[in-house]
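Entry 14: structure prediction run for Type I restriction-modification system specificity protein. Input pasted below.
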Amino acid sequence: MSMSRIDDLIAEYCPDGVKHQTLGEIGEFIRGNGIQKRDFRDSGFGCIHYGQIYTYYGLFADHTKSFIDPNLAEKRKKAYKGDLVIATTSENEEDVCKACAWLGEEPIAISGDAYIFRHHQNPKYISYCFQSELFQSQKKKYITGTKVLRVNGDAMAKIHVPVPPLPVQEEIVRILDSFSSLEAELEAELEAELEARRKQYAYYRNELLTFERVVTVCIQDICIRICSGGTPSSKRHDYYDGNVPWLRTQDIDFNVINQTSATISDEGLRNSAAQWIPANCVIVAMYGATAAKVAVNSIPLTTNQACCNLQIDETKADVRYVFHWLSNEYEHLKALGEGSQSNINAKKVKSYPISLPPLEEQRRIVSILDRFDKLTNDLSSGLPAEIEARRKQYEYYRDRLLSFDELAV
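Run finished. Output tokens:
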């Protein structure tokens, strides 16, 4: 990427350096209010709900996914063209302060747990700044909460960003837009290739796990122990962030668990019904969006009550064979779910059938499927690593473009 045009503009407009200012100095934060998902309708006044910023919107948008009644919109806070819309509540640090620049001609209503940032800079430039390592490193010290993380407008106002003259901002945006477009095209090609590999893997896995004359037993027949976990009954802060790895269903995604996104204290473990689970168990998620997904743990841990933990009798079945079998049966096991979230229970997991060839054949199948699995899913090899490399390359150039010598005061 050529930096000559940027260098020329900096030499022309800010040869002594670029002023760094707090967001509070260059704009104001306005908190959104009072829009619930139940208020959505097919047409009407455009709106953005904070949760959609994570799941639907990119760095900028000129149309909304959702609408509300115009009468309801009258008393709601509104974003205008050029404003940023920022989600300020999330369960993970990465998503807190995810921003989208509104580029539509018409104003839109903004929900609570989101802020509007009104300013007079290039909106795309500021949106890119919210992505930058400089911004992300500063926001961390303003995050509050444990399970639900938040940053408020007063805190964001203290974060500083480089504010070059508008012609410099515009050139940076032009370069990043062009690079983002190219990166997105390449990533889409890689994703399509990866999806084709995954379909191929699923086909061969199903072929390898289809038998004509093999004994079929229930999952409980090949287990030494089956248990579920627990969650501390109190919301006390000191029950969390301890030294006990605590697995939640959102961590389960046909993967190997070598660390958990949450921990509890020894006291929290005693307070809950959770039990220590030895390494090398098959763990089945039972509730919510991940119901029927499976994982294998490489470390001892404990889990919440939404996990069914299978300690396999290795004289009867290979752990990785059971993992691959249940992965292949995901849609069938999930279809047994009940209720609005299609939850399954431990009884259904225990009684689920598994075809059981001799151990030697199980291990042969595991050897083949593990190689396929590594190629398609392991970020250290194959196409996923290439996709990750593209993203890192983009992040490197973005942060380089947003780094300036600071103007001496």
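Notes: The mean pLDDT is 92. Will compare against the previous run tomorrow.
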